[in-house]
Input
Amino acid sequence: SKRNKDMVKIARHCIRCGACIDLHPELFELDWDNDCIRVLDEVVKPEREAEVRDMIADCPVAAISIVAGKQ
Output
């Protein structure tokens, strides 16, 4: 069977500093209405996994994570 898709998530303790948006505007945006950072493409594609892991390391409050997707 196919592996579940891993997903990028942002935790509630995100301080909305915008570092992820500055570094990866194609993946994140500020949602002004809900005062949060939104992930534009939550599915971690194999060719972008290293980039996502860099984002996780770059977040100053460790609010970005990869979680196992559900079927």
About this structure: The longest strand covers residues 6-10. Helices lie at 19-23, 49-58.
